[in-house]
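R.M. (postdoc): so does anyone remember the format we settled on? I'll just put the structure tokens first.
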């Protein structure tokens, strides 16, 4: 049932249409001209206006213009016995849903009303969907009320509507993939695939076949054709995480895909068109890498049309409380428990410098929820490096001695110490150790060779077994 306002200076038409639409179950009101209709709309909204064009005091075109100012989504159907091309054109420019000439077929008008209501329903569903996705992207997954995060949310909503490539930068654990997903979820591509790949997790050859696919017989083991991730993300979004780890040869191939919007599977002779929005992310200084030649400058400018820089957690400490509550609720939901956090424990969380950012905070809360047996998380459930953290003490440990230091040697020893500690904590598991150090496994292996401790990993695994 719709709320319909009938506007016509001829009483016979008002009476006829009232009978027709009341029989269909609609709520009907009538007005004798545009000004009368506007006054009624001030008191009670309508879903659809069916209005004559030529009327005294205010005609149907003026009514359409004024009604849409107040309610852009209101349905407006105009009718006239004096139709002209110019009048019809003006009506549609102003957004009339339809234009019908008198005398008209009542069944035709009923069909027009039905289609207008269906159109309004689709608009409402789309608005509800966008609202739900906005809440999903900005509230449930990305938490933060700080000014810096509010600026990020605004940027996400703005860039979601365009198709330009986006480069999300920030330290590990700041939520780069969550930002990419929020952009996709708020975009016109939301109902299409979101495909994510970590470029640092594959060798050059494997990465090429993952991104672009391959044809049967292209290499040993290629027993059938396989679609690449670019094709899988067609009409959707592909998220290239850790793009700074991509080899220069792959950078050339990716640049061509971005420019031509075509991919050539490994072993194929023909190309296929693709329409996938690209969002890339990195925790590295790509601009600096262009200067030393490890990252192509033309690719850098191609992927960074819209840059989004995520602040580290230490620069938005006012969000730690909200984030902690969010993660407590998340992990309590999994166990069916209800927990809060003590004021002292929260103070420790807010005092700590989160080098692992939001991801480290999430793991810390997960651990605390698992260990706590009371109704409130106490400081004892937090890791020692957080409860014992003292910024002033740490600062004093880095005071420069009067006789100076060999900085290169000191940093090398510090680097080696952290690598060894990470391997100890993970019983020699290089993948987990790399996660602790927030670096690709390939970079960790480079450090193992640099400090001549690659065998240490195997020894720790053996002792762990």
């Amino acid at each position: 049932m719709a709320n319909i306002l009938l506007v016509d200076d001829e009483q016979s038409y008002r009476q006829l249409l009232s009978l027709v639409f009341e029989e269909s179950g609609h709520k009907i009101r009538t007005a004798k001209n545009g000004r009368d209709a506007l006054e009624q709309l001030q008191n009670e909204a309508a879903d659809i206006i069916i209005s004559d064009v030529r009327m005294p005091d205010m005609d149907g075109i003026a009514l359409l213009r004024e009604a849409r100012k107040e309610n852009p989504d209101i349905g407006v159907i105009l009718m006239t016995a004096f139709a002209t091309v110019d009048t019809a054109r003006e009506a549609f420019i102003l957004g009339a849903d339809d234009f019908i000439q008198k005398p008209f077929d009542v069944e035709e008008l009923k069909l027009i009303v039905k289609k207008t209501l269906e159109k309004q329903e689709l608009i409402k569903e789309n608005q509800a969907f966008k609202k739900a996705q906005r809440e999903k992207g900005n509230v449930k997954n990305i938490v933060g009320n700080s000014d810096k995060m509010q600026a990020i949310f605004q940027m996400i909503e703005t860039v979601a509507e365009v198709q330009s490539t986006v480069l999300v930068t920030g330290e590990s654990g700041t939520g780069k993939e969550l930002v990419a997903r929020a952009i996709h979820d708020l975009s016109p591509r939301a109902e299409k695939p979101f495909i994510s790949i970590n470029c640092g997790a594959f060798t050059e050859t494997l990465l090429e076949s993952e991104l672009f696919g391959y044809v049967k017989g292209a290499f040993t083991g290629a027993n059938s054709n396989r679609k690449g991730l670019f094709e899988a993300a067609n009409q959707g979004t592909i998220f290239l995480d850790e793009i700074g780890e991509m080899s220069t040869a792959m950078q050339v191939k990716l640049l061509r895909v971005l420019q031509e919007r075509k991919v050539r599977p490994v072993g194929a002779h023909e190309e296929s068109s693709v329409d996938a929005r690209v969002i890339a992310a990195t925790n590295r200084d790509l601009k600096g890498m262009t200067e030393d030649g490890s990252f192509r400058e033309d690719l850098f400018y191609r992927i960074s049309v819209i840059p989004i820089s995520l602040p580290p957690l230490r620069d938005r400490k006012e969000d730690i409380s909200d984030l902690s509550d969010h993660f407590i609720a998340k992990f309590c939901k999994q166990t069916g428990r209800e927990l809060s956090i003590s004021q002292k424990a929260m103070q420790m969380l807010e005092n700590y410098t989160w080098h692992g950012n939001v991801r480290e905070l999430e793991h810390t809360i997960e651990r605390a929820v698992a260990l706590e047996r009371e109704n409130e998380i106490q400081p004892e459930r937090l890791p020692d490096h957080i409860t014992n953290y003292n910024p002033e003490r740490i600062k004093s440990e880095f005071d420069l001695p009067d006789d100076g230091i060999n900085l290169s040697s000191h940093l090398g020893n510090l680097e080696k110490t952290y690598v060894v500690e990470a391997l100890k904590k993970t019983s020699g598991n290089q993948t987990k150790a790399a996660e602790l150090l927030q670096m690709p496994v390939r970079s960790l292996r480079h450090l193992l060779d640099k400090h001549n401790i690659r065998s240490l990993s195997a020894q720790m695994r053996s002792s762990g077994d």
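R.M.: ...and that's the designed sequence above, right after the tokens. Also worth knowing: The radius of gyration is 31 Å. The mean pLDDT is 88.
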